[in-house]
């Protein structure tokens, strides 16, 4: 098994082994955020016919050459077309028809004069402006025609996609499945949050963090509980976990006497691909594939920050790929460092930073202790400054790349325009 991969190598290896999940059919109304697994080709025309964009009067332009407020022209109101209704007959030369927004234009009419440019007469209307070509007319098929390809496979469905799906009459839609992710915590010291923590106990927080990281991107976590540091117990819980598409376990992957995760995984038929990634936090990471069923297994480090950061770098992109996303990575921005950072060359560091919009762009400030046990530092930060493997320091004022974890960073308290 390979040991000590770079972040790049580890991520490439994982993504090469990651399948895109097959499609499932769901209600279009529930499809927000899902990745489309079919092309949407229109079976309808929208709008179905020419219609009025205003409340006013349908007219024939030829009748109104040279008309203005000073030179108005009266026309008889031949009939009325309400929204949702139809014209009883074509509009003849020298006639107007009362019409409302969204109502179909009568045959023969070629423009709509808005009611503000008339005396709003019911039997006879005085027209006070000369309409332009097809003025206030919404063309039939202006949005789409029958046979138009409207949405391509791979599109991430947002609010406007759901509106378009409704317009074409699609109530069900084919999207990529969401991976089921089984989450296991391991360690004799761990207890659930509602248990007492005396006698050297530590609350298991990783399952909560990891489940939330799954949900945030639409993956479906299930919790396997806490396994004690005995191989049989780890095995029993992991077997249950292999019903999912992905198994994420945290802790027990180091080289200590009580770290049994790797041996159990091998016993379960998991082919481990590597162990150890040249990064901080998060060196002790393992990844494997269960043969022949193909589940992906991630053995994350136990320290809370290491678990969260390695999930970000390796599990999240894989889960997004499974769901059919092409944009699988977090956004990376350039920021000016507010404090110098020193490190030993040899590992890539992800330094927790808070981010602020300054006059010269974004400023990144390290959040204090970078211990992999200080989970609160992730609350204080919105991103991870990426300090390359080979570098020994980055000075205050230098530009660094920052992976933005908090999408809310791009939202604003000010309108901004
Ligand atoms: P290990 O990888 O088992 O050596 O664990 C490394 C550190 O992470 C230990 O201090 C553990 O107590 C801690 N740890 C392991 N699992 C969890 C968890 N689920 N929640 C919080 N801390 C954990
Ligand atoms: Mg342990």
Main beta sheet, described?
7 strands, mixed
The structure class reads alpha/beta
Overall, the morphology is: elongated
Order of strands, widest sheet:
1-18-20-21-17-13-16
Task: Explain briefly what this protein structure is.
By secondary structure, the chain is α/β, with parallel strands linked by helices.
Keywords:
single chain; 417 residues; alpha/beta; seven-stranded mixed β-sheet; 7 helices; 28 strands; binds adenosine monophosphate; binds magnesium ion
Descriptive notes:
The protein has 417 residues and is α/β, with parallel strands linked by helices. Helix content is 18%, strand content 31%. It contains seven helices and 28 strands. The chain has helices spanning 7-17, 159-167, 206-216, 231-241, 261-267, 304-322, 376-380; strands spanning 2-5, 23-27, 40-41, 51-52, 56-59, 73-81, 96-99, 111-114, 124-127, 137-138, 149-151, 172-176, 180-186, 190-191, 202-203, 220-227, 246-250, 270-277, 279-280, 286-290, 296-300, 332-337, 341-342, 348-358, 361-366, 383-387, 393-394, 399-404. The strands form eight sheets. Strands 1-18-20-21-17-13-16 form a seven-stranded mixed beta sheet, with helices on both faces. It has a five-stranded mixed beta sheet with strand order 8-5-7-6-9, with no helix packed on it. The longest helix has 19 residues, at 304-322. It is elongated and about 95 Å long. It starts with a strand and ends in a 13-residue tail after the last strand. The model has no long low-confidence stretch (mean pLDDT 97). The structure holds adenosine monophosphate and magnesium ion.
């Amino acid at each position: 098994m390979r040991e000590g991969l770079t972040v790049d190598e580890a991520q490439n290896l994982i993504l090469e082994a990651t399948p895109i999940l097959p499609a499932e059919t769901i209600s279009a109304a529930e499809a927000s955020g899902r990745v489309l697994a079919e092309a949407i080709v229109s079976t309808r025309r929208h709008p179905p016919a020419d219609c009025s964009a205003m409340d006013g009067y349908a007219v024939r332009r030829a009748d109104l050459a040279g008309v203005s407020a000073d030179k108005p022209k009266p026309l008889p109101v031949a009939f009325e077309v309400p929204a949702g209704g139809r014209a009883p007959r074509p509009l003849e030369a020298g006639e107007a028809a009362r019409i409302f927004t969204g109502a179909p234009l009568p045959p023969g009419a070629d423009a709509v004069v808005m009611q503000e440019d008339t005396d709003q007469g019911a039997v006879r209307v005085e027209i006070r402006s000369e309409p332009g070509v097809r003025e206030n007319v919404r063309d039939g098929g202006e949005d789409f025609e029958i046979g138009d390809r409207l949405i391509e496979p791979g599109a991430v469905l947002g609010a406007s996609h759901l509106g378009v799906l409704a317009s074409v009459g699609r109530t069900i839609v084919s999207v990529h499945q969401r991976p089921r992710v089984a989450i296991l915590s391991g360690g004799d010291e761990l207890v659930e949050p509602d248990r007492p923590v005396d006698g050297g106990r530590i609350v298991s927080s990783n399952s909560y963090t990891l489940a939330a990281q799954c949900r945030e991107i639409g993956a479906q976590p299930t919790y396997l509980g806490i396994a004690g540091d005995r191989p049989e117990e780890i095995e029993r819980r992991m077997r249950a976990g292999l019903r999912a598409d992905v198994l994420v376990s945290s802790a027990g992957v180091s080289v200590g006497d009580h770290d049994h995760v790797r041996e159990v995984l091998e016993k379960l038929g998991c082919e481990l691909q590597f162990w150890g990634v040249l990064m901080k936090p998060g060196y002790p990471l393992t990844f494997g594939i269960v043969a022949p069923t193909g589940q992906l297994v991630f053995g994350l480090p136990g320290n809370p920050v290491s678990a969260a950061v390695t999930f970000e770098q390796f599990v999240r992109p894989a889960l997004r790929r499974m769901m059919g996303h092409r944009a699988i990575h977090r956004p990376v921005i350039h920021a000016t460092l507010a404090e110098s950072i020193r490190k030993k060359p040899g590992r890539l560091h992800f330094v927790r930073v808070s981010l602020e919009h300054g006059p010269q762009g974004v400023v990144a400030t390290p959040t204090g202790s970078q211990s992999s046990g200080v989970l609160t530092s992730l609350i204080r930060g919105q991103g991870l400054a990426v300090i390359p493997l080979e570098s020994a320091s980055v000075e205050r004022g230098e530009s660094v790349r920052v992976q933005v974890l908090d999408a809310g960073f791009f939202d604003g308290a000010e309108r901004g325009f």
